[in-house]
Fold each of these.
Amino acid sequence: MATMKDISKKANVSIATVSAVVNQSAFVSPELTDRVNKAIEELNYRPNAIARSLKKKSTNTVGVILSDILNPYYPAIVKGMDDVAINNNFSVILCNTSNDKSRFLSYLDVMEEKRVDGLILANISTQEDLLELEKRRLNFVLVNRRPPGYNTSYVGVNNELAIEIAVDHFSSLGYKRIAFIGGNSEISTSKERLNGFVKGMKKNGLQISNSLIFQGEYTQDSGYASVIKMLKEVQVLPEAICASSDLIAFGVIKALREQGIQVPEDIAVMGNDNNHFSGEFLVPLSTINHPTYEMGKLGMEMLLQGISEGANHYPKQIILTPSLVVRESCNFAHREKVITK
Amino acid sequence: MATMKDISKKANVSIATVSAVVNQSAFVSPELTDRVNKAIEELNYRPNAIARSLKKKSTNTVGVILSDILNPYYPAIVKGMDDVAINNNFSVILCNTSNDKSRFLSYLDVMEEKRVDGLILANISTQEDLLELEKRRLNFVLVNRRPPGYNTSYVGVNNELAIEIAVDHFSSLGYKRIAFIGGNSEISTSKERLNGFVKGMKKNGLQISNSLIFQGEYTQDSGYASVIKMLKEVQVLPEAICASSDLIAFGVIKALREQGIQVPEDIAVMGNDNNHFSGEFLVPLSTINHPTYEMGKLGMEMLLQGISEGANHYPKQIILTPSLVVRESCNFAHREKVITK
DNA sequence: GTGAAAGCGCTAACAG
DNA sequence: CTGTTAGCGCTTTCAC
């Protein structure tokens, strides 16, 4: 493959001149520019970004690490990131850890060796992982999840508020006995959502029953399992269920229906995050919308800004505001009946 | 950041020796190995993959180009690719064209400049795009879509068979008047699926009515719009609708329901591709399963094999077989009634 | 077994 | 304005 040297020979100019026209980094007389461009054309020359990176000590590529691309929460985030990356001439290396810690660590190694200019991570919930990350000399911003107390570059949504809104909605509809079915308690978003539940219940003067709080995973199966568990353990069923994610809500509703419990007639259900398919679920899901595309977009913008500003960068956090989406899973006029087993 | 030179000084060995122990590319006495490793530890050294790439003329990274990460068909494909990439010490640069041709071209440029070792493309349907691709000196394999007549490295699913299976299923249930609602007719999978429809209808001795064949996009909105169009244009409604993708089927069912037409009681609907949420759609969708994860996995395996084998590589095509998934959207005992407007 | 040295393709002083 | 040159950090002969 042709190199600048080949071009310089062919065009009878110095290699520096070639570089200057390729990068438009200095004025070159129209005549020479022409000769160079012609040679480039003829030899089908492409600058070698690897060589340039070695010299410039920057790669114009960033890594994106997330835990599970199959979770429908992420594709929009990734799209947001990719859109701004390409607009700024950056490439993104995608790393899908599949929730595997050792895989996460090996991605970190690779990213460091490949000298990415920065990293966006959507999978950091613990101090431990953060420490691991900070060991590397990498620019980074966290997205969606964050360890407790973390207060530098981050963009996420107000998870606490999300569930508060959900509880408010339930309360305004007259529901009082409300269950919460959450995700993995290690994950920051999951904690924040549970906090939001507690806060919302208190705010509305509603009583919290510990027997109606469940934690599991951010999956449909987990939501399903939690309901089965609840049905077994609890004497008086809740009037409404607040799920920590739409995927969980899907599982919840599935389990309920299989047990002959109608949604929303018997029990109301709210989701959270506004999955692409929530509107067309077995029963159209009322939920809380999360601006995921924005999150990815802003995350990447923040990272690139950090990269270009270097030490002058002033770190910040952006917290996006979620909003209520009313559909059919909890619109039923509330009755006073209490369901017992 | 420490370099091999730093290590070599600190450990009092030559730079070549450092390289040898880092890469285990030659025997080094245990003593020197120790000294080197100690120095590496102390200086927190990380090999510079950029420099290595420049020298070795290979980057251990591949590009993946696809048209729309938001389409639920792709995440599993990407996961399959990423899984095998990491296992082989490769990174993947994700490129999401958003169906934008100029963006596709600029991705190609970038991939060439960044000297990726290969490319997987899931968005190539036309001769034109293929030509554009072949201009670059890049190893590549096509996945999912392919231009007519293309017969080198490819992995996809038997789209024709998929729809044939769907038609067979309808036929076995007694449905005769069947509509087909397809995607963009430019896209290879879309054509193949339409062919499968025609083939299946003929095979089952069923009459094809051109007024019952629609093309649009692989989206819910498009499926919705096609049904509205059909309802307006057609005198005698079909008994069953064969959708080219689940997303389309979602739109179809939504439109039908809004018009007061029950699925499957009034009209049966089959999807295609087995979207993650098809089982929990408003009406659980009977569909055809596509092994998407496998497709990504095999595609990446094929590419990496091609890369390592170089000119000795013997190109091939892998066609995965889809399978019927029966749920509720076309199980209704068929009645002889004909619906007219 | 280990070290010296050339060179991958490019950028950026620095001279002229 | 244009050319010369010294590296960027690493791999890889080729001597010793």
Note: The radius of gyration of chain A is 26 Å.
Amino acid sequence: MLTAVGEWQQGLAEAISARFGVALPPEQIPFTFPPKPEMGDASTPVAFSLAKALRRPPAAIAAELAAVSLAGVRESRAAGGYLNLYLDRGRAIGDLLAGRFTPAAVPGKVIVEHTNINPNKAAHVGHLRNAVLGDSLVKCLRYLGRTVEVQNYIDDTGVQVADVVVGFERIKGFSLGEVKALMAALSAFDPPKSGPFSEVRLGAWAARCPALLAEHPAWRGVERELERCCGRFDSFCWELYAQVGPWYAQSDEHKAARLETLHLMEAGGNETAAMAALVAEEMVRRHLGTMERLGIRYDVLPHESDILKIGFWRSCFDKLKAAGAVHLVPAESEDKNRGCWVMALAESDEFKGMSDADKVIVRSNGTVTYIGKDMAYQLWKFGLLGRDFHYRPFDTPLYEVWRTDAGTAQIPDGVILASEARPESLPKRDAGQAGMTGKSDHEASPSFGGGEAVINVIDVRQSYLQKIVKEGLRQMGHEAQADRSIHFAYEMVALATKFVRAEMEKGVRFDLSEEDLAKPFVEMSGRKGLGFQADLLLDRIKDRALHEIEAREPDLAKADPAQWESRADMLATAALRYYMVRYNRNQVVAFDLEQALAFEGDTGPYLQYACVRAEAILRKAAEQGVAVPDPDHAATLEALAPAFDDEGWALLSLFMRVPVQVKAAVDGLDLNIVARQFYEAAQAFHAYYHHFPVLQEPEDLKRRARLLTVALFARLLRQGLTDLLGIPVPERM
RNA sequence: GCGCCCGUAGCUCAGCUGGAUAGAGCGUCGGCCUCCGGAGCCGAAGGUCGUGGGUUCGAAUCCCGCCGGGCGCACCA
């Protein structure tokens, strides 16, 4: 079935063919939205493109096309070469509610990979940008009728995890048992459930610390980390990780610790490997918790350790060799890559002009690089590997999410599986939950991978590597899949030096030179502990929200603290998500706390407020016994639509643009246009609200038309914010 | 050196595949709550769209050069 716009394109194409003898494919007739409401509801500049071929002025062509009658169009007018359409308002609203502006569903599964945080420290604002962009993209794809599978890749075997393990074992002298005890102590911490973070949680934690230190003499070296972590394990590791770099720099012996640790992790069956698994698993749980605060969830968590154990790389390597995509550089050669398996990139257009066009895939010591593992993973995502993971539920009380499992394949004896290693104090999954019990897990486990298109949300600094993965697919003969491997590249989040200076004035220490501070922003670095933790940011925004709510409803905190909290959470989610999605993806976000904390103007809460205000009117109407017209009732629409104020109509007609904008957003991976669209709608509503009394309007027909306008606006905005931007809307704020 | 990205109002950013008079927010200044919630609204000031060419009926937008800034181009992920 054609969309409403599709019908206009069809109608115009036929008319153009009949009148001018020019065959124009309907989908090539462009539609835009006029800058002012009096210029109509939709518009096409098609006359401009016909002008040259027909050797007639655009205005004359548009004038002739204005005589063509189009479905659902009340009137067509030519204006300055444009053809402006004025719609039958009742019908247009009906079409919109019936989804006739949304493109038809597309078959095939899209796999979106995002978040991918190294499981060795707390998530920071940069990870938030990734997750928010990824999740918003997922929502937009689903809105357009796509089936989407969300994957969050866990690199649980890399040096980053090893570094934290080094921190625990070598720097702090922690045993596996002590790490377990620390995790247990932190997850047992039960701060008061409501009130500002800075007063309540921090206070309670500060009070708890001395007792913990007294109970655990082995923790004498971590007083500072413990105090600063606010009772969070990921935050503790954030502090710890920042100490590892300087420690390595102290001596060669220290440097060697990293490699030793990595070897122990690979070998398995020892305390170090168990600690790595334990730390990584708990970290993933923490990250899922952070993202859950923003309503971001995943379907499956592929683990790098499983990719290795189950032999994905070996299959991929066989395919690469069979296709001649990699070759071995002879060990006796003079080449700097001697002894390595490399992929030649020189012949590909993407890489021309490179001085060194070979990429090492397998090192001379026989180990595979990250890029190789990524290629195996990408093959699996497309169902091209011919092998699959086993799956089991990931151990978290938050929601049902699966993780990969190597099954019985090649797990060295004695390796403590992460699930067995979890501390007893963590909440256990409800055994009654479907698909969550014992043996039935495998039978009930859904299938993952085998997507028809793959979108990897990874920051722009990895573009080169993503290109190589794509090139690998191509060289293996998977041309079509290479074309459907999309790298959603976005610029990094850095710290605005303005913000850094403000923090330094408050006593926070950053290891930065004067030269760094002279720049507009500085890159974050987990290694240096230079960054801003995601949970802390959310806490700060929430605190602000709690205060703002309290200022408006002083009694709420006492009367209904749960409600108070829940509204503040929604405000924080809105502020943060909007902040992360409002920028163009090519724009470096120079993180500034002041901007992230803003609730006024071009912000998430402003959008929520528009919705809350509209719903307040409807609630008030109900209280006064005034009936709100039902938008789903066709006859009501027909009757009231002609009585819409022009401004009210202009407001509603903005929502007809949403499907077009979402399509454009997904095609161009420019999600900011979706955010902007709703911002404009909110702006239009706030203005409408001030200029058009609804309940006070004396004339019955007008009042009912305005109530209908408000009802439609509230529904469309709430739906849009929730479904596309993941911004929840409270009933009051 | 090669490649990608950014440069638009004091600051932070929009400006969609060239198209209607370059727009928002913050900040500044001035107004608006006996009236559906002031997290709001209305108004003012503020821009030679980094720069020089080119293509076009038409360029912030496309092409080329230059200037300034960021990021890539590992047997690290």
Note: The first strand of chain A starts at residue 42 and ends at 44.
Amino acid sequence: MRALPMVYLITIPELLMVTNVKEILKKNQLSITESRRKILQLFYNANDALSHADIEKLTGDDFDRVTIYRTLQTFVEKGIVHTIPTADNSVRYALCKDNCTEGHHHDNHVHFLCDECGKTYCLDHVTIPDIQLPKGFHQKQTDLVISGVCKNCD
Amino acid sequence: MRALPMVYLITIPELLMVTNVKEILKKNQLSITESRRKILQLFYNANDALSHADIEKLTGDDFDRVTIYRTLQTFVEKGIVHTIPTADNSVRYALCKDNCTEGHHHDNHVHFLCDECGKTYCLDHVTIPDIQLPKGFHQKQTDLVISGVCKNCD
DNA sequence: AAAAATTTTGCAACAAAGTTGCATTTTGGT
DNA sequence: ACCAAAATGCAACTTTGTTGCAAAATTTTT
Ligand SMILES: [Mn+2]
Ligand SMILES: [Mn+2]
Ligand SMILES: [Zn+2]
Ligand SMILES: [Zn+2]
């Protein structure tokens, strides 16, 4: 009989992670509530963007739908997460990695949507090129979303 | 008393325009119905993109909401109009000017959304630059939407 | 540590947006 | 004019998002 493969179970001390999230909330002058802690933690655990529906599923019935809407809105306002518009009309949210501040986002990176697995990626190192607009048009925000097949579904 | 300003009223013969729209429907192997004719005509009259809500207002209660949804869906499938994703999660539709065919769109131009007047422009002459994606990612569709202040609201 | 002030949450009610099934009407072809 | 196929209208339903307000939780003050 062959030996079973060795499995290393690494447990990350929750206290550390929670503290981390707490610090971020404090830094942004937000009161520490269960919903904000848990939802922000979800973003740190996920490696892709989350929709409102995703969060609703992941949190079960811990929180009311309205609370999730308001929490996401707050995070966007504070520059903690940014929104990603999609062609199918369902906004996703992802952590801001650039130093975004209250009311001012700097996430000028490209977003990728996989048609296969549905994942939304922040391509943090792919920046949006400058676009020359016709006379009279003044640019404030630019969203570049590419869809196709991701590296996992390749 | 000053003379009133001269007003030139130009009436465009409806028959001509309708025929034009009819031809486009025929070319796309779609049966000529009142809703398709009227909605397609709306797009030819408008110089900016239209949302489902816009069309609902413009057509009054001529058609059911569901018919408008289905008509737009058909137009998109046939390559007559293309969708424009927006940050506020409301899809707009605009005529395809490139030679798009059934199931294959080629509208790789930039879209502009005015924060002031809410208009959506197809910047047909501003093309989306090529984006170099990380290994393993395969590009199918690209949407570049810029928001700000348009030339009219400047 | 307790009380007061402020903020956040959950609930209910509502509005807007979109989908589906099916009977009726309209369209295109003979 | 007739028939088959396609499109429409209607009803019912789901999903998504918003608002007001009382209750609960958090922060600040004492
Ligand atoms: Mn991003
Ligand atoms: Mn366009
Ligand atoms: Zn994928
Ligand atoms: Zn404008």
Note: The radius of gyration of chain B is 18 Å.
Amino acid sequence: MAKRHKTDSRPTIAEIAQIAGVSIPTVSKVLNGRTDVAQQTRERVERVIEEYGFVRNRAARALRKGKTGLVDLVLPRLDDEYFLPILEGASQVVREAGMRLVLTSTHYHSEEDAQWINDATDRSIDGILLVLPTEEAIERLEQAGRPFVLIHNQGGLLNMAPSVRITSWEGGFVATQHLLNLGHRRIAYIGKTSPTRDAIERIAGYRAALDAAHLPIDPQLECAGEFNEIDGYHATRALLQLAEPPTAIFAGNDHQAAGVYRALHELGITVPDEMSVIGFDNLPYTAIMNPPLTTIHAPRLELGRAAAAILVSLINEKPPETARVVLPTHLVERQSCRPLAQQAHRP
Amino acid sequence: MAKRHKTDSRPTIAEIAQIAGVSIPTVSKVLNGRTDVAQQTRERVERVIEEYGFVRNRAARALRKGKTGLVDLVLPRLDDEYFLPILEGASQVVREAGMRLVLTSTHYHSEEDAQWINDATDRSIDGILLVLPTEEAIERLEQAGRPFVLIHNQGGLLNMAPSVRITSWEGGFVATQHLLNLGHRRIAYIGKTSPTRDAIERIAGYRAALDAAHLPIDPQLECAGEFNEIDGYHATRALLQLAEPPTAIFAGNDHQAAGVYRALHELGITVPDEMSVIGFDNLPYTAIMNPPLTTIHAPRLELGRAAAAILVSLINEKPPETARVVLPTHLVERQSCRPLAQQAHRP
DNA sequence: GTGAAAGCGCTAACAG
DNA sequence: CTGTTAGCGCTTTCAC
């Protein structure tokens, strides 16, 4: 354990140097693990450092080196557990690289006075991880001239910025195909209106699967809805009003699926006996839903890790292996889907 | 919109000074809103700052002033949505104070090599928010001599460190009393073994409510269990093996309650027709459980806000109004509890 | 009101 | 191998 020195303030490199009877740069060299220090000198310095519990002042180092060791993670909001594993993954990798993660929540505030854009400029951070960025945010970031990586890039496809995404199209395709394989023909999709690219890809995947099965696309079965519980609920209520309701519902994400469950339960329709439901994301609570929800797994931890890894490479000016990665989704079968043949018919 | 200057690098205060035709300290004064600058000079400097999109270098300022504007939030882990509103609340207040939040997840790593304790020492942060700290962590933090605030202090009651907690005892009491008022007499509690102070208070509240109702404490009804789903599940399975099973279950937290639901569902026991269940925390998903879970609301956003507010005061050396706050919990009635009289009896 | 001078703690370049 | 010198960009006395 480090011994406390009499003064309240932490020792500086200068004091350590004086006590060890060497010059300041020598201490600095020891601190930075440089080889051009005599073994004996190194040991003496190390002993003093240990004894006085010396720790480098980061601000001074940052000023000198032009790097702060800080990475900013910018999220639209902090009240959705969807983001948690992304946070965790990014945090892990950033820490492994000896840096720290600064958290920013934009709350969808006007980009205009977005503080984080200044943070990108004032050299207080080395790089930025931007989750669900808008087109405008990306533009401003490009001008700031600091390394950044996009997570769930919502910008145009032409954008060549480093980014990490998931296979939303394939996810939508696979989810729909799963229902198709179970014999379902009238399959609804919820989440049509969401302007995010992931939402657009999901519905495109849904349509492609239908198309591959030579099934027509029924606009009545494509419901509006943002990625939240209440929209899943309303869409389901509407769906059940239809002359010919669907036998299966593909919810654009798990929150919506929870709303689907709630609406169905209110109407006395049981899952999967009378309705098959599939979600997207594989949030933890879907495993304990009743019945457990079949869903598409979105590799969120890996999303955070991959993005952070690219950013760290960028910061260290080692070109990353690939600056644009797409992580695969996969189907998680649980108990919310059933073959149409075994499913009871509604009047 | 700030115009870009020809050079790639951001302008420094020196360049701004030169362009505006004033000295460096004058620019600094303008930047810091000092009054001893002629109106005309100020405007000229401001114009140049605006035009060149100048932003202060934080590292330099931090070095000079000894403050970094960074607050470290240290969490045991990042994979439990319980922490999310705490994060959000802390983030809000920290940002309102013009500072930024650095995130650290200890993953319950040995305190020995805890990096965050160094961060506390190296002047790279101005203060620390410690969630669910161990006794040892607190001791080390006290030695580090930097402001800190504890959230969910698990340390001894004697500890006088600034802290924010919730009324776990009252929560336990109210939850139990609610069940008692409903006519239940055999009420189980899950979460006995958890060593955290909140767990201890909850069971104490449970016992006190029983005691107040002149009911004996049956050790068989006090189940072991950490605050997770699986332990709630196992405890429930065990409870149902009892010769005389409980008619109501008080789960130490919502994750456990989810496990209770799962076990009950497997056994074909319906909630609340055959078993009343109450949880603790009021996590978002409890509202969409089936049936929606009655639970004790833990004000987590406020926890984060309050802790951050105290820390900000401490950092600014304004003594906070109170350095030790306890936030009230309250009952959220939903549909998982029913009067014993209306509840079906199990064989 | 304004600016010259000093220095926060550290690292990099180079001379010895 | 070691130490001297020179700043990184900013804020702070303190003369003028």
Note: The longest strand of chain A covers residues 70-75.
